[in-house]
Amino acid sequence: MNKTIAAFLLVFFMRPAFGAELVGGPMIGHTTDRSVRIWARLNAEADLVVAADKSPDMTNPLTSKPVRVLKQDDFSGVADIDGLEALTRYHYDVLVDGKSVLKKPLPSFQTFPREGQPAKVRVLFGGGIKFNIDLEQKIWGDMAGQEATAMIE
Fold this sequence. Notes:
Shape: globular
Oligomer: single chain
Strand content: 35-45%
Distance between the termini: 45 Å
Radius of gyration: 18 Å
Largest sheet: 6 strands, antiparallel
Number of strands: 11
Structural class: mainly beta
């Protein structure tokens, strides 16, 4: 067997031995005026923590409790962050076994207004992604610029 192919196969199949990696998500859901729930899938068992901060520098983040991602759960986990402020933009990071796995600039979300508080809500609708035709999917950048409250796919 060619040494290059053997090295590739070794790295590909041994990746979980070098540490878990993010392979799905993060996906934000169940956002309220004071909390958020973030789903992620890894490629191996690990501890998942999500941190959120008003500052993109993550100088004083609120963090979720550690969630143990297990094989029996398809390596998927959901992390909850409580204690957020209403109608506030938060930057967030995903930590796998204590290491950041998201690239900068970090993504963000906005909490909802308090119940009864008037606010403008902007919902985007999308779907039909065809990665086999266009890997970049430039529409996501256009949608990000819309500062939507929610996105339905």
